[in-house]
Amino acid sequence: MNRTSQIGLIFAVLSSLGAGVLWYYFRSEYNYAYPIVFWLLLLIPFLGFYHVFSLPGKTPKVTLSSLSQFSTDGAIANEVLIHTPLLLRSIGLSMVIIALARPQSSLSWQNTSTEGIDIVVAMDISASMLAQDFEPNRLESSKQVAIDFIEARPNDRMGLVVYEGESFTQSPLTTDHRVLVNLFKDIKTGMVQGGTAIGMGLATAVNRLRDSDAKSKVIILLTDGDNNAGSIAPLTAADIAKSFGIRVYTIGVGSEGRALSPIAVYPDGRYKYDYVEVKIDEPTLKEIADMTDGAYFRATDEKALAKIYAQIDRLEKTKINVTEHSRKAEEYYFIALIGSLLLLVEFFFRKTILQTLP
Fold first, then answer.
1. CATH H-level superfamily of 110-324
2. Helices 282-291 and 234-243, axial angle in degrees (round to 10)
């Protein structure tokens, strides 16, 4: 392999690396409508090696003004110049391919008006929710039914509050249900201090809804036990909900009789299970629902949860203003422009400044 081919091989490698760097940078910078187009970038290495193997039949045509051009430095410079179009062509083509994948910005927000109601799910994630009278357990079953409900109501703003011995907001009210579903999937037992603070969970959910301008404001409160933690009593939280016009649907999750439930934790984090009596404070849950014009359901299976969603469907709807980022701003124009300019420069350079003879 002569020196010209060796330099050409270096340029071929640099061109492939340049395409890879561009792909890595732009892939993390934007979302893409057609990411499959990125596979076309594999053409860049083939383009480089084709250039190298076609060199033996080509020699650069250089106009010499004096014999000094025959110096070694001038020869090396000419051998570098002959490969410059490859680099320009590879980078330009890479940017055109990236533009064809349609990069889109996720930072473009828009204000819209939609029909819907505001709903917050307050979910008990205490250790007892791992009881296996539901498949695979109460928590996972409740999560899946709630996710199905979210996906079936695209026009409602929804939020998520979780509670054990304490409560916190996992997601504020949002119309971005894709994000909300992912947050639902992430919840698990042990995220906060142990216990069952029903009053705290309800109060946190009320706080998420109190400034809402929707006529219909709903909390779906799920629990499988009774209140044994927290600084706010369940009925006190229910009275606050009533004052803000919030309707509360309460669900007692658990089968009748005994269920295989966690009773202790091993040092490695696994739970020890045994059959224990299912105890749900149904009188309190019923009173919360009655105080707020809601309804109480005993969810011994997923069908009971579906009844709540049918009830919510009959609620009055109202127009609410929301901010969402479901529409993406197209970002391919500038990338395509730069790529096209590089290809034009390569064409000009090859046809005018640097010409080749067969």
1. von Willebrand factor, type A domain (3.40.50.410)
2. 10
